[in-house]
Amino acid sequence: MSRKAAVVALTALAPISWGSTYFVTTEFLPPDRPLFTGLMRALPAGLLLLALTRTLPRGAWWWKSAALGALNIGAFFPLLFLAAYRLPGGVAAVVGSVGPLLVVGLAALLLGERPTVRTLLAAIAAAFGVSLVVLKAGAAFDTVGVLAGLLSSLSMSAGVVLTKRWGRPEGVGALALTGWQLTAGGLVILPIAFLVEGAPPALTGVNLAGYAYLAFGNTAISYFLWFRGIERLGASSATLLGPLSPITAAIIGWAALGQALGAVQLLGMAIAFGATLAGQLAPRTAEKPAPTARAEGRSFSSTEKNGQEVSMDLEGVAVRR
Q1: 299: which DSSP letter?
Q2: What's the confidence (pLDDT) of residue 291?
Q3: 10-residue block means of pLDDT along the chain (321 residues)?
Q4: Engineering a disulfide at 17: which of 172, 206, 208, 222 sits with its beta carbon 3.0 to 4.6 angstroms away?
Q5: 320, 80 contact by CB (below 8 A)
Q6: At 41, is the secondary structure helix, strand, or coil?
Q7: How far is it, in rounded angstroms, from Cα 312 to Cα 157?
Q8: Are residues 123 and 275 in contact, defined by beta-carbon separation less than 8 angstroms?
């Protein structure tokens, strides 16, 4: 297996893991507490990674990590859950599937990545495939829900592109950067959760097991793999792995919940999976060098040396990230 194939495979584990979120949420967690669930996913995972890495941001990275945490976690989760409650899952997933197209546009604007025709077609095909997997006939639309879904995709897409643009400070690993973002995002969600939903609910052993999985496997490990993949694959290529999330959710729904998978859904899976593969096979687009980051008085930039990079999600509502 080539080095790039290994990176793609590891990065793909993140959206695959996020595809299990809907099942865990509905089967293991207390109902109607989406913001508390978002808080329990982000903050414990972030604090654990901070404790393990024992590294805090310095200088400009205080505001950069706060901004990334707000975009990738703090704003994304509440908007995503608002869309989940206002829209049928299939409609919300389709709205969220525009994420790769948003990333392609933002990457061109902020990173200087010139999208290829293949990348654009892959992003469009991915959105179409997801719509076949999750969209049901007669699905209703709600203006507020659609707007929340679009804003959640925009928030995550901006976070993905800025993660690539800013890189990370010299001497700081991806695990520490993940911890900074999860902690910042959790702190954004904390007051919102208590203002909207009130005090935490009484939790059973099953609830605690579900939250433990979401916090550590589904969030700490998955986001580490995700941010690491963005560094190595590029914003557009990494985001085109996103359709693996609704595909995984559909397979889990069929295997564990008895949800039917018809010919249309299977066709949609094939199209979305094919688009995902095409997104990884597409040639790397030309990128402008990332701006220099400074840490402890030394300069750092994302460049290439001897052909190797020295530097250093899309999740539909039915597959709540």
Answers
A1: E
A2: 45
A3: 88 92 87 89 95 95 96 89 66 71 89 85 89 68 79 91 92 94 96 93 95 94 94 89 88 84 89 90 49 39 37 36 51
A4: 222
A5: yes
A6: helix
A7: 19
A8: yes
Helices (H), the chain: 3-18, 21-28, 34-53, 61-69, 76-86, 89-96, 99-110, 117-134, 143-166, 174-197, 205-212, 222-233, 235-239, 244-257, 263-281
What are the tokens at 250?
């559909």
Rounded to 5 degrees, φ, ψ at 308 are: -120, 145
Question: Which of 179, 141, 186, 165 is CA-nearest to residue 312?
Answer: 165
pTM above 0.70, yes or no: yes
Report whether 271 contacts 243 (CB < 8 A). Answer: no
Q: In angstroms, rounded to a whole number, what is the distance separating the alpha carbons of residues 22 and 25? A: 5
> Are 169 and 295 spatial neighbours (Cβ–Cβ below 8 Å)?
yes
Burial class of 222 by CB neighbour count within 10 A (0 to 12, 13 to 18, 19+): buried
List the one residue out of 202, 289, 288, 280 whose CA is nearest residue 240.
280
- Do residues 261 and 270 touch, judged by C-beta distance below 8 A? no
